Amino acid sequence: MLFVQALLAFLVVIGILVTVHEFGHYWVARRLGVKILRFSVGFGKPLFKRRFGKDQTEFVIAALPLGGYVKMLDKREGDVAPEELHREFNQQSLGVRAAIVVAGPLFNFLFAIIVYAVMYMIGVTGIAAVVGEVTPQSLAEQAGIQSGYQILAVNEQPTPRWDNVIQATLQQLLDGKQEFLYSVKNQQGDEYDLTLNLQGVTIDDIAQGAFFDKLGMATLKPPWPAIIGEITPGSAAERAGLQPGDKMIAMDNQAISDWITWAKYVSERPGQDIEAEIERNNQKLILILRPENVNGKGRMGVYAPYFVTERYNLWGSFTHGIEKTWDISVLTLRVMVKMLTLQISHKHISGPITIAQFSGRSAQLGIVVFLSFLGLVSVSLGVINLLPVPLLDGGHLFLYLIEWIKGNPVTENTEFFLQRIGFTLLIGLMGLAIFNDLERLFN
Prior knowledge:
By secondary structure, the chain is α+β, with helices and mostly antiparallel strands. The protein has 3 domains: about 95-125 and about 315-443, no CATH class; about 125-220 and about 305-310, PDZ domain (Pdz3 Domain, Roll); about 235-300, Pdz3 Domain, CATH 2.30.42. It is about 45% helix and about 20% strand. It has helices at about 1-30, 95-120, 140-145, 160-175, 205, 210-215, 235-240, 260-265, 315-340, 350-365, 365-385, 395-405, 410-440, and strands at about 35-50, 55-70, 125, 130-135, 150-155, 155-160, 180-185, 190-195, 215-220, 245-250, 255, 275-280, 285-290, 290-295, 295-300, 305-310. The protein has a 4-stranded antiparallel sheet with strand order 6-5-7-8. A 4-stranded antiparallel sheet has the order 11-10-12-13. Strands 1-2 form a two-stranded antiparallel sheet. Helix 2 (about 95-120) runs antiparallel to helix 12. The protein is elongated and about 90 Å long. The relative contact order is 0.12. It is found in: Membrane.
């Protein structure tokens, strides 16, 4: 069942992203007057085939879903009627051809922006960057980090969630930095900066999931203390006089040991008065709580401080979608450069098996996680296709750059030779990716 779920999620992810990429080529080519003969999602034997439009363009879904293509009118692949020569791809100006080629990756980036924007409108919820156990003599302890501290920023980059902490640290490691400024807040609410020396910690350590082990600290794990986090304006909690940081001691003279116990107690008493004993600034207070009745369950309108939700309006979501797409694009390129210069292990290259596994997992974890994964793969597809490797869109753009410099295209023999080199590189890269996939699968 897990295999079937992973396979279906993989087909959905690849199908969407290939369609978006090829639609970019198709849409721009159509707008610029080039005739489209075929739009194919997948390679090999057609499973679905229909013709549409005045040009009777053939739309195909093929058996092998690892790519796609848009076939345009091209006199190198067949005879072209004289009256249609002006619609032939190679008859177009250099600028038009470049625009058609770059449209595929560009649509992947635009799609990622939209996906991330939707994700931020729904709300990204993650574990707050609150430190749990700290290993004695570890890098974290040497820097002064203690259990219960919340990490607010890494080198002035805000880190509301643990994934933000890891990404910010990774970005700084890519810059070759070894000393990091961790801005923290202790349990009393005091904020200050600590310097962490990460000499000896590598990018591979983070990529292999050893971030917490290397630093010697862990996330705060359940059971969580019943401490009030954010309070919704106008909620039952606000009316009762609760404040962020209040710690629940007892409810109706029954001891409250953790957040789950407190939440369950409230949920079972919609509309009822509850005598709550709380601790605030080392003083004990008694408040009367009356949970609102929401679909038969009690709700106070408070959030646990152990989770953070990042949510924006339409404009804010779109802005953050652009920033997220840019950050992932730059990070992807920088990691590629590190791999080419052998500063990062090639074992982090993933192929279709790993993508299928993560597709299945992200689909199981909910729409926000799935959208995040979809955006990541879309950005990766856009970046990879812009690499100056023959057969990729970036390879075509590189040939157009040579044509622009020379004043005329490269010869067909030269183009064919470069395409063979590109094909060999891509086959080698795919082989390495599948080898890494199988090694992860069986280890």
